[in-house]
Design a protein that fits this description.
single chain, 388 residues, alpha+beta, Arc Repressor Mutant, subunit A, three-stranded antiparallel β-sheet
Amino acid sequence: MMPEQDVYTRLADHLSNVGMGYPVRDTLLEILQENLDASEAEILMALPAGVIPLDPAGVDEIGLRAAMPPEELKPALDRLAEKGFLYEGKTASGEKGYALLHIGFGFPQTFFWKGEDTPHARKMALLVGKYFNRQVTGEAYGSEPKEYRYIPVGKAIEAGLQAVLPTRLMEEIISNAGRIAVAHCPCRVSYRLVGKGCEHPTEVCMKFDELADFLIDRGFARELSREEALEVLRKTEEAGLVHFVDNAEEVKHNCNCCGCACWNVGNIRRRKIPRDAIMATYFMRDTDREKCIGCGECATICPVEAVQISDGLPVLDSAWCIGCGVCATVCPGDAVSLHVREDRIGRRPAKTFRELHLTIQDETRSTTGREKASKSFKCLPGADLRGS
């Protein structure tokens, strides 16, 4: 019989092989050991790794690999879904099924979606913060195509461009959603749990359709009407938060990020990871110099500090601008707008969520995480890669 410690090592290796896999580190083993007993770890290894997110397998299929009678397996799977280590949804045939949670939808988030301040949540905040250093973040999110994209504030896009690119607007995504959930931002919640300050709102993390079903049904989030979702959107824009969604026209996942705490905007703001290494950015800022009064409001609110005022006018660092359009929300002269980046003209997000993740899977099979991170970090000059 293999020693119990090896169960967690084997599980970490298994989780590293999902499309959006977990880079193996000692801290990952510690997180697994803190939350799972050996039998639960064995059950998780019975779930297929080579599937896209939110693609569940039926209990019978899982049972072929699990050393557990069917009458014991289903309650065990339900407990793991309740703990936030499995996604629960409908299989292609309509039966109840389960899937491993990929890193962007996984247990680092489930610890904090409820916004709870408990001893366990505080301990997980410390471990998750230690785990997601610069290198792990680069490995996890360094695929091509990128898993996520920034979606700009509607005010920053002219009406003509809005008509051509409606799926680039949060209002359209909310309008098309079948079901909407709102959870707490795991980045800001965990940031506060370790004693760091961030005054931005936390209950602004929206999920759609089958991902919303899972969060609502398992108590990780609450349901929103479309009107309530639009109010959350308004609240985030007033707070200067950045809209972040799947890099597909069909969106399941939206966070509203800040430069204080969030894994993507924060790393870019601190110049730890180049923008294009971890996120898809399709837009860039323009300034109408005739309308600009040089007030500096755009520089103050920029979540990645990509705007500075020089000689009374804004100067943009185009290597770090994320095209979020947040600066347009505070410009008193309507001098700010966005245009499609020249190197992104003609390039669009994947049509569907499935298409995006099948492409990522193909890329992951051909490139190791370490190679992927190395290539990503070299994609832009001027990055400060010191420290973790």
